[in-house]
Structure to design on (746 residues):
């Protein structure tokens, strides 16, 4: 192979040196790494908050904090996890890094806008920090900022809400950039049905971002306007309707759930075929289900509001639509399983994490049906059952897809391999901790323990203790997983350009890639998941990778 | 790895952005629809208090300025720099006229003690409070967009003067123009909803 300089050694635009080469860069790969460090920082912070919350709940009464701190902490945990981790994690890091490469091009369409999005992201984060230490302290409204409390509360709601507004702008501009790149920068020889599924999922996500984010922006602006001018648009005394706030909020925030999960599904669709050495089953079905989820997912928001007061007809319609979204999600799950059927499966950390994803996501999806059905939802609404359900989807789903993506693309991003054994230990421990953490919450919820409560009845103590114990196990697992990845910087075992035997374009370029991504003109395959060449190579005794 | 500037791509990006702006106002129109359904008689009463003449003048002003912006792009394409500059200055001036009208309109309302959280609105009928609340929020946000549009047009004007916008490279001007059309388009919906249909 020709020796090439990686993007770490070549600043873009040329001539920038030192820290400027990073802070003013237009290179999508550098921006992806800058997002990565920022997002990991927020993830660890929010995870610690979550652990503190569960520690508080491990025994009855006051354990380590008072109720006000508890309320602020769960708000903070939600706001940071949603707006600074789950929504941006996969698109901003892996999307930025790999979308242009998978499309066979050298950068996103608007590189400067990409840099601007990163600054918006950082700025939003700084705003969130400011709201923490100024004024009356961080809000205790929950991440939903429901009126009338969010309008009346003395805490620093306005600043936090503006932080969420700015972060929304950032994610919207990233989506805009991806859609334009997808249409205008794609290699001329790459037809729509030759695009890797990860990129397809990002495309669907980007549309949801552009469709839904403006609605939350205006809603958040209205919260601030209400706080400043008290017009009363959501205040019953002045003729307003607080339920309308909830509609506007969920019109964005339910589609946002798909902004979070679709890229994760894309990651899994990349990983499963590679380690099954078999073409993905139902490529077109997966593409269409991504778009189907994007469309149907935008029409189900009111299922968060069955108990808020709605006509029976709307309840019926929204419940039905909610059930319909389960179909494209199930299409994906079945396609992944079918891909593995009779495949030549090779176990690696990314595959293990992907398998855990499929399992946890399925549980999350199926319990979603319990909540989508009105009869059962009214029983478990606002209980720990809901908490457990969305953590199965958001964390068991997107979170594990994020970990899988880290392990899958780490060799490409940094050009080094990590230790497999510790990665397995970390992954298994995280999964076991996860189950210990969230399964008790399902049971607590069915027993009637409400969410967001500071204290509880004695009968819930066992479940809460178990959940707390699982929380510590979970954090330990994540610590081992990250520690192992970071150790790879010390050991510096170089990774070949294609350590896994994968077929998409990013594996044809050096690890780490050069600044313009491609050394020679990319060869577009008839079908992105054609493993015949990899199979031939391996039959000749050439191992794609060293077992570590 | 394409060479040259992809004007279509830049326009796609701008259209996507405009689309998101429309949805931003869409959220407010949802509120309008819901409250109009709830308080039709007060919306009608409130709408009659608005000054239709000023509203109509503003509509004409915006429509004319939209035309002149479009004409300035054509002028740039035909290398008529002076004409383009003149048309742009006129468009920005139209924006100023719009805002001045708005200022007098709002000022008159303030004078009659009709503004958010004012005594008249708080102690009066809740339907009227909602109508004027929406009126201030929507026209206020639209006014903000007029200001942003004027800033974009001014930047384009400076670029045209400096010779940075030419017949082969005019995306900045074109996008600023598109934004200005958006401001116009939203007003085309705001004007009948508040001034005419009620």
């Amino acid at each position: 192979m020709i020796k090439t300089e990686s993007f770490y050694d070549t600043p873009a635009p040329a001539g920038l040196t030192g820290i400027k080469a990073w802070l003013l860069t237009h290179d999508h790969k550098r921006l992806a790494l800058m997002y990565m460090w920022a997002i990991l920082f927020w993830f660890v912070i929010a995870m610690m908050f979550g652990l503190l919350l569960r520690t508080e709940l491990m025994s009855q009464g006051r354990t380590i904090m008072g109720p006000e701190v508890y309320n602020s902490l769960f708000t903070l945990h939600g706001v940071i996890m949603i707006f600074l981790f789950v929504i941006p994690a996969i698109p901003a890091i892996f999307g930025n890094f790999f979308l242009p490469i998978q499309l066979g091009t050298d950068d996103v369409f608007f590189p400067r806008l990409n840099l601007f999005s990163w600054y918006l992201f950082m700025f939003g984060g700084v705003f969130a920090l400011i709201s923490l230490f100024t004024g009356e302290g961080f809000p205790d409204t929950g991440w939903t900022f429901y009126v009338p409390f969010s309008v009346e509360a003395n805490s620093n709601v306005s600043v936090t809400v503006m932080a969420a507004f700015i972060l929304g702008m950032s994610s919207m501009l990233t989506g805009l950039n991806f859609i334009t790149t997808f249409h205008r920068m794609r290699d001329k020889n790459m037809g729509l049905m030759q695009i890797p599924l990860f990129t397809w999922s990002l495309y669907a996500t980007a549309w949801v971002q552009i469709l839904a984010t403006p609605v939350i922006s205006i809603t958040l602006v209205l919260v601030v306007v209400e706080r400043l001018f008290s017009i009363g648009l959501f205040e019953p005394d002045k003729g307003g309707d607080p339920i309308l706030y909830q509609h506007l909020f969920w019109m964005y925030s339910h589609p946002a759930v798909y902004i979070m999960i679709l890229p994760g599904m894309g990651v899994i669709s990349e990983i499963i075929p590679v380690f099954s050495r078999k073409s993905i089953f139902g490529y077109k079905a997966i593409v269409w289900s991504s778009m189907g989820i994007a469309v149907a997912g935008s029409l189900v928001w009111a299922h968060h509001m069955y108990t808020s007061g709605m006509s029976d007809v709307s309840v019926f319609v929204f419940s039905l639509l909610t059930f319909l979204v389960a179909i494209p999600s199930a299409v994906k799950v079945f396609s992944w399983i079918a891909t593995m059927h009779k495949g030549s499966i090779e176990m690696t950390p990314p595959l293990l994490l992907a398998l855990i994803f499929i399992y946890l996501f399925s549980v999350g999806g199926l319990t979603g049906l319990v909540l989508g059905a009105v009869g059962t939802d009214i029983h478990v609404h606002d209980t720990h059952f809901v908490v457990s359900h969305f953590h199965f989807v958001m964390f068991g789903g997107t979170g594990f897809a994020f970990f899988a993506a880290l392990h899958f693309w780490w060799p490409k991003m940094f050009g080094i391999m990590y230790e497999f054994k510790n990665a397995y230990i970390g992954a298994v421990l995280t999964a076991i901790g996860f189950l210990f953490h969230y399964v008790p919450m399902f049971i607590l919820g069915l027993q009637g323990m409400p969410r967001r409560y500071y204290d509880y009845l004695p009968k819930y103590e066992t479940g809460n203790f178990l959940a707390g114990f699982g929380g510590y196990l979970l954090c330990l697992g994540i610590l081992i997983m990250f520690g192992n990845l970071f150790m790879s910087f010390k050991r510096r075992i170089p990774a070949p350009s294609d350590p896994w035997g994968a077929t998409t374009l990013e594996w044809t370029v050096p690890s780490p890639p050069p600044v313009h991504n491609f050394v020679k003109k990319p060869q577009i395959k008839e079908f992105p998941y054609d493993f015949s060449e990899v199979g031939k190579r391996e039959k000749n005794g050439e191992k794609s990778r060293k077992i570590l | 790895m394409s060479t040259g500037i992809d004007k279509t791509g830049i326009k796609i990006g701008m259209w996507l952005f405009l689309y998101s702006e429309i949805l931003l106002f869409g959220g407010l129109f949802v509120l309008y629809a819901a409250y109009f359904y709830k308080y039709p008689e007060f919306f009608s009463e409130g709408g009659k208090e608005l000054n239709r003449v000023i509203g109509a003048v503003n509509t004409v002003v915006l429509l004319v300025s939209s035309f002149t912006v479009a004409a300035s792009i054509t002028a740039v394409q035909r290398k008529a720099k002076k004409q383009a500059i003149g048309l742009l200055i006129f468009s920005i001036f139209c924006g100023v006229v719009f805002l001045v009208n708005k200022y007098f309109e709002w000022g008159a309302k303030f004078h009659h003690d009709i503004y958010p959280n004012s005594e008249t609105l708080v102690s009066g009928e809740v339907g009227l409070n909602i109508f004027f609340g929406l009126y201030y929020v929507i026209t206020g946000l639209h006014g903000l967009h007029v200001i942003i549009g004027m800033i974009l047009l001014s930047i384009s004007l400076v670029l045209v003067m400096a010779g940075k916008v030419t017949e082969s490279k005019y995306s900045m001007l074109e996008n600023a123009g598109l934004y200005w059309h958006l401001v116009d388009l939203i007003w085309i919906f705001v004007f009948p909803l508040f001034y005419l249909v009620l």
